[in-house]
Automatic annotation (TrEMBL), chain B:
<dbReference type="GO" id="GO:0022857">
    <property type="term" value="F:transmembrane transporter activity"/>
</dbReference>
<keyword id="KW-1003">Cell membrane</keyword>
<feature type="transmembrane region" description="Helical">
    <location>
        <begin position="137"/>
        <end position="158"/>
    </location>
</feature>
<feature type="transmembrane region" description="Helical">
    <location>
        <begin position="178"/>
        <end position="199"/>
    </location>
</feature>
<keyword id="KW-0472">Membrane</keyword>
<dbReference type="InterPro" id="IPR001851">
    <property type="entry name" value="ABC_transp_permease"/>
</dbReference>
<feature type="transmembrane region" description="Helical">
    <location>
        <begin position="110"/>
        <end position="131"/>
    </location>
</feature>
<keyword id="KW-0812">Transmembrane</keyword>
<feature type="transmembrane region" description="Helical">
    <location>
        <begin position="57"/>
        <end position="76"/>
    </location>
</feature>
<keyword id="KW-0997">Cell inner membrane</keyword>
<dbReference type="Pfam" id="PF02653">
    <property type="entry name" value="BPD_transp_2"/>
</dbReference>
<feature type="transmembrane region" description="Helical">
    <location>
        <begin position="82"/>
        <end position="103"/>
    </location>
</feature>
<dbReference type="GO" id="GO:0005886">
    <property type="term" value="C:plasma membrane"/>
</dbReference>
<keyword id="KW-0813">Transport</keyword>
<keyword id="KW-1133">Transmembrane helix</keyword>
<feature type="transmembrane region" description="Helical">
    <location>
        <begin position="24"/>
        <end position="45"/>
    </location>
</feature>
<protein>
    <submittedName>
        <fullName>ABC transporter permease</fullName>
    </submittedName>
</protein>
Length: 494, 333
């Protein structure tokens, strides 16, 4: 048995008497990709912040190449050869790609002048080595979210660390960029580095990981080789109980068209997009990142001011929706892909967030009815099983899955008939995902219409009755549930 | 309702003394200050002195309440001091017996003058708000421009001269009293109660917090962000107009240089009261305490015979301390 590159044992951490991590352990071999799995609140983040020296441990040991280490700051961890690619991006928008990569350690010339030529060259070499096609002199603010993510990855790798931690690195990436990332990961593995890979996307884990560790409720529950593990087995370990099925689907599409989009165009973004969704149907819009799926939902919901043509029909009648307010009044609801950016007001309570889109229904004239508001929050918390000690807690303290259910609760309060969902399960753990699928399915089964944008192909195949594939702002094709396969969708989308 | 939400997250539920200090720090500081002043000076707790403090706080308090609306919605209003002067001058010109400063046909009834003064303030606010909401210009810049423009308009309107000899009816809002309580205190209390109701109990209040907390989420949720932005500036402008008239009424004449730098004390009261300049978090009760704290401090230092220059230094220390307290609170969350 070869020596471990990195080893953590018995890590413990409590916050004010509440144990966030009871037994964190992980053994990483050189030249391998090790998946760290667990639901929200399983203790992964605490584990990683202890490893990186962001938080102090209460107990336990960490060894790097056999030597015991205890970092007081991420800087020390980095110096010792452990780097992390964080889930939340922190680019400096008004600086170039190269400046961001070499931030704080810019190559200097005489009198402390920054050697830009040298820096750009070094950045170019790094990006080439990773296979990322991004010009090093481009401003960060001119990049897409996916490109920013790739730059962050390049930055972390530029430290020449031996242990690289990736925390949900693909959450903002499309298929194509994700493939680039996986190729880079394979190269790093071949160079003998160890990679700790955290992701909620099981298909990714099965694709790139060699071994796994699962945490649940703050403790290690299992580890081993990926080759000995099935998808069901992994889910069961993460959730702690057998799941009947990953996807829940009980709806039957009816005949009546509820939402029809005809010839929709937006300046530079969409060209002549047409599709129809039926009563009781879950319709998926599938496509690569940037293909125009989100832009379609925005246009339907009155969030786009650059619509150049096209008609939207609701229940057969043409409508002009110029603002979200009008959209809501017509029975539409939009769960945006960016939960923190445009879904929630993080500084406010669960209750205030649930009430936000339905204030009219919860007030008498200009006055809010606190009684109705409380009642509405209670109903939604029960209906969606939102786990929160009180509806008065700040929504920022909830897990990703529970936050997403708060967003859904906000919209269900407006009693929509058509639900537009943009990446509804992004950053949500397996257990909460299943609950969200159940909510979608129940809504459609009750006569509602769901239009879902998703980049996760299993989700599209598992939930959709029909898939409309979008490519470069146009409809590239339409596939029914029976004919839909991963190959067919990817082929149409790329 | 908003009260507790704004005050803290789950980490603050437990009765940890340090958390309590963070949460109620300003209230505690206020109470301690009052106790100390009462101990060192017999006059401090006299009814006369308390009413005096409240009267002196009323104008800054009213400006600070308007400022609270703007800051909660992620804006700032630097123009209130100049609007104080402009609204005061215009209203006074309708309610003066001085033949040189009078508008033709005057003096008009006090009620009309007051309505016009409120309208002038609201109009200044509407211009601020419209530019901010429609053209997305940062409110710092727009209201900085208004700070200059409104002062200029006041000087132009009054030809640089004060408007003296205001009618008794108009002066009542500065010098009158109800059941022994000075009129400025009555007005201040009324403004506070209405503002408290609007921010905590009305639909519009929820919209203000939502727009300040996350304008994108508010837009997607069907809230008209431009309307809310416009409205908070109109509220701030109208309250500045009210404060300007109270100031003129108290002194008996309206001055073109009235209200200079008043925006700074108003912002200080809001910040000391725990409202975040980032928007979406804060309470109007905090602003009330912040304004009272400044008022009591000035009064107490006066009673103790401390030079007024020191008062400014102490106010500066207080502002920074309040913000540091707030920062440590948000880090915990």
């Amino acid at each position: 048995m070869t020596a471990a590159l990195f080893e953590a044992e018995g890590l413990k951490k409590s916050f004010g008497g509440v144990a966030a991590l009871r037994d964190g352990r992980l053994r990483l071999m050189p030249g391998s990709v090790h998946a760290l799995c667990g639901g929200n609140g399983a203790g992964k983040s605490t584990f990683l912040s202890i490893v990186m020296g962001i938080q102090e441990r209460d107990a336990g040991t960490i060894r790097l190449e056999g030597r015991e280490v205890r970092f007081a700051s991420p800087r020390e961890a980095l110096a010792a050869g452990i780097s992390i690619i964080e889930q939340e991006l922190s680019p400096i928008p008004a600086m170039t790609v190269a400046e961001n990569i070499f931030l704080g350690r810019e190559p200097l010339r005489a009198f402390g002048r920054v050697d830009f030529a040298h820096m750009n060259r070094a950045a170019q070499e790094l990006l080439d080595r990773l296979g990322f096609a991004i010009p090093p002199d481009r401003m960060m603010m001119d990049l897409t979210v996916a490109q920013v993510q790739l730059v962050e990855i390049a930055k972390a790798l530029s430290h020449e660390a031996r242990v690289i931690i990736m925390d949900e690195p693909t959450s903002a990436l499309g298929e194509h960029e994700a493939d680039q990332l996986f190729a880079a990961v394979a190269r790093l593995r071949a160079e003998g580095k160890g990679i700790i890979y955290v992701s909620h996307r099981l298909s990714e884990i099965f694709r790139i990981a060699d071994s796994y560790t699962v945490f649940r409720d703050g403790a290690h529950v299992g580890s081993g080789a990926m080759a000995d593990l099935t998808r069901e087995g992994l889910i069961q370990m993460i959730v702690g109980r057998p799941l009947a099925e990953e996807f829940v689907k009980a709806n039957r599409p009816g005949g009546e068209v509820t939402l029809a989009v005809e010839g929709l165009s937006r300046a530079r973004l969409l060209r002549d997009v047409s599709f129809a969704a039926h009563r009781g149907e879950i319709l998926a819009l599938y496509g690569l990142m940037g293909a125009g799926r989100t832009e379609i939902l925005e246009a339907v919901f009155g969030l786009a001011d650059d619509v150049t043509g096209g008609t939207v029909r609701l229940h057969g009648a043409p409508v002009r929706i110029r603002s979200p307010r009008e959209a809501i009044a017509r029975g539409l609801a939009l769960v945006t892909e960016d939960r923190k950016g445009s879904g929630l007001v993080l500084s406010q309570s669960v209750r205030a967030n649930i009430a936000m889109a339905g204030l009219e229904g919860l007030s008498l004239g200009p006055a809010m009815s606190v009684r109705r508001e409380k009642e509405a929050a209670r109903r939604m918390i029960e209906m969606f099983g939102i786990r929160t000690a009180s509806d008065q807690l700040d929504v920022s303290g909830l897990s990703g899955g529970n936050q997403q259910k708060v967003v859904l609760g906000k919209w269900f309060l407006t009693e929509p008939r058509i639900l537009l969902l943009d990446e509804p399960t992004r950053g949500v753990d397996v257990g909460a995902k299943r609950e969200i699928y159940r909510i979608m399915s129940d809504f459609a089964a009750g006569g509602g219409t769901v239009v879902m944008v998703s980049s996760e192909i299993e989700e599209v195949l598992g939930m959709a009755d029909r898939v409309v594939v979008i490519r470069d702002g146009r409809v590239a094709g339409e596939v029914g549930r029976a004919e839909a396969t991963a190959e067919a969708l990817v082929h149409l989308a790329a | 309702m908003q009260e507790r939400v704004a005050a803290g997250g789950p980490a603050l539920r437990r009765a940890d003394p340090r958390d309590l200090a963070r949460r109620y720090g300003i209230l505690i500081a206020f109470a301690v200050l009052c106790v100390v002043l009462a101990l060192v000076n017999d006059n401090f707790l006299s009814t006369r002195n308390i009413l005096n403090v409240l009267r002196q706080t009323a104008i800054n308090g009213i400006l600070a309440i308007g400022m609270t609306f703007v800051i909660l919605a992620r804006g700032i209003d630097l123009s209130v001091g100049s609007v104080v002067a402009l609204a005061g001058i215009v209203a006074a010109s309708l309610a003066t017996t001085s033949s040189t400063a009078m508008v033709a046909g005057g003096p008009y009834p006090a009620a009309l003058a007051i309505l016009v003064g409120l309208a002038v303030g609201a109009a200044c606010g509407a211009v601020n708000g419209a530019i901010v909401a429609r053209f997305n210009v940062p409110s710092f810049v727009v209201t900085l421009a208004m700070l200059s423009a409104a002062r200029g308009l006041a000087l132009l309107y009054a030809e640089g001269r004060p408007v003296p000899a205001l009618t008794e009816g108009f002066r009542a809002m500065g010098t009158g009293s109800v059941l022994g309580v000075p009129m400025p205190v009555v007005i201040f209390a009324g403004v506070f109660l209405v503002a408290w109701w609007v921010l905590n109990q009305s639909r519009f209040g929820r919209q203000v917090y939502a727009v300040g907390g996350n304008p994108h989420a508010a837009t997607v949720s069907g809230i008209s962000v431009p309307f809310v932005r416009l409205s908070v500036f109109v509220i701030s402008g109208a309250l500045a107009g009210l404060a300007g008239m109270m100031l003129a009424a108290r002194t008996g004449s309206a001055l073109t240089q009235a209200g200079i730098a008043y925006e700074l004390d108003a912002i200080a009261a809001v910040v000391i009261g725990g409202t975040s300049l980032a928007g979406g978090v804060g309470r109007v009760t905090g602003t009330l305490i912040g304004a009272l704290l400044i008022g009591v401090m000035n009064n107490g230092l006066d009673l103790m015979g401390v030079e007024s220059y020191y008062q400014q230094v102490i106010k500066g220390v207080l502002i920074v301390a309040a913000v540091m307290l707030d920062q440590s609170r948000s880090r915990r969350d």
